Amino acid sequence: MTSDLPVLLAAVSILSALHMAFQARRVGWSRMKHKIMPPIVTGPPEFERTFRAHQNSVEFYSVFLVVLWISGIFFNEVLAALGGILYIVGREMYFTGYISESKKRLPGFYMVLFVLLFLSVTATVGIIQSFLDKYLNIRLL
């Protein structure tokens, strides 16, 4: 194995996958607590908020992984990994806040949006720089 493997990106990806699995488990615990069998997705407000918080995480997950890896490979792995950790923290803030009260999801949601914007910008800058360098022999950074 070589030292140029994206170890930090892989580590953040595993942590995020485990976090997603833990969120799914929490939905399962909420189902048991409120006696709601699949495929039913309605019930007491606490269950619906828990279910919706997880669904929102699922909806954003593919976007997160794409911008995490592209930012890390084309721009800077350390910055991308730090962004990934902040994303996981923001997701947890969002999830736990949403379960207690829907308005409490907002700080975590804004944090997640900021991280996704940061990773998207760094990914785009990295791709543009790589394109210019590879195909036009122009080095900006």
Automatic annotation (TrEMBL):
<keyword id="KW-0256">Endoplasmic reticulum</keyword>
<dbReference type="InterPro" id="IPR050997">
    <property type="entry name" value="MAPEG"/>
</dbReference>
<dbReference type="GO" id="GO:0004464">
    <property type="term" value="F:leukotriene-C4 synthase activity"/>
</dbReference>
<keyword id="KW-1133">Transmembrane helix</keyword>
<feature type="transmembrane region" description="Helical">
    <location>
        <begin position="60"/>
        <end position="89"/>
    </location>
</feature>
<dbReference type="InterPro" id="IPR023352">
    <property type="entry name" value="MAPEG-like_dom_sf"/>
</dbReference>
<dbReference type="InterPro" id="IPR001446">
    <property type="entry name" value="5_LipOase_AP"/>
</dbReference>
<keyword id="KW-0472">Membrane</keyword>
<feature type="transmembrane region" description="Helical">
    <location>
        <begin position="109"/>
        <end position="132"/>
    </location>
</feature>
<keyword id="KW-0812">Transmembrane</keyword>
<dbReference type="GO" id="GO:0008047">
    <property type="term" value="F:enzyme activator activity"/>
</dbReference>
<keyword id="KW-0434">Leukotriene biosynthesis</keyword>
<protein>
    <recommendedName>
        <fullName>Microsomal glutathione S-transferase 2</fullName>
    </recommendedName>
</protein>
<dbReference type="GO" id="GO:0019370">
    <property type="term" value="P:leukotriene biosynthetic process"/>
</dbReference>
<dbReference type="GO" id="GO:0004602">
    <property type="term" value="F:glutathione peroxidase activity"/>
</dbReference>
<dbReference type="GO" id="GO:0005635">
    <property type="term" value="C:nuclear envelope"/>
</dbReference>
<dbReference type="GO" id="GO:0005789">
    <property type="term" value="C:endoplasmic reticulum membrane"/>
</dbReference>
<dbReference type="GO" id="GO:0004364">
    <property type="term" value="F:glutathione transferase activity"/>
</dbReference>
<dbReference type="InterPro" id="IPR001129">
    <property type="entry name" value="Membr-assoc_MAPEG"/>
</dbReference>
<dbReference type="Pfam" id="PF01124">
    <property type="entry name" value="MAPEG"/>
</dbReference>
